[in-house]
Amino acid sequence: MAKIDGAAGVLAFRKMHGLGNDFVVLDARAEPIPLPEARIRLIGDRRRGIGFDQLLVLEPANDGSADVFMRIYNPDGSEAGACGNGTRCVAHLLMEETGTGSCIIETRRGLLSCRRVDELVSVDMGEALLDWQDVPLAEAMDTLHLPIQEGPLSDPAAVGMGNPHCIFIVDDAEAPNLDALGPAVEHHPLFPERTNVEIVSVRPDGSLRLRVWERGAGITLACGSGTCATVVAAHRRGLVNARDAAVSVHVDGGMLEIQWRDDGHVIMTGPVSTAFTGEAAL
Hints:
By secondary structure, the protein is α+β, with helices and mostly antiparallel strands.
């Protein structure tokens, strides 16, 4: 796992991804790593640094039942509360480290239970948050229908997964210009903490096609929490199978399986990969 040489300012890191949703993983369990915002932004710079969709920092757990605390940063230096694919990547590392088939990762979202499923990794992302205050939104309203219109996009749903999501259900997810529309929706005044933006359509076989704009990161090949939020919104709109059944979601980087259980918890299952390890003088 990654360590730091504080005197030399050299970061040892691991680069991982879940369906192309890529992460730099640092291990600060034995020694804190100084990470001012400017340094996070430099590490995230894909030309001058390493590049990532999220930076994942492993710290000692605060809860005695957890294996690790995982802190999450976006490329703009802001801290995030949830990262589904990143959780699965860290779970893989921890299970390899301990030789077990399960682990518990503590985040700002809470305790997330993870387990190995054949060659895949599954994480319980906790309960979907459907009340306007929990997403959060700036004012009271029905989270299933928001009064937002941006170009061809309208009538989104909002879901909280430890971070906010704004989901637009459209006929063809490929059609909208997400590069242009994503930033405007991310900064919409209804979202005091900004929002992730999802554009989704239902395929003929009942699976979903999803494209994602992540707050602080832009378009990504996959977004675990966004995929979970999208399946919840699709269920609430009556567009997918009955609750407790797994839904296949096709993102730009591949496919994730999402199950919104009857108890409100959302389970995400998919592959993880290590791209490379290295050291960087950043």
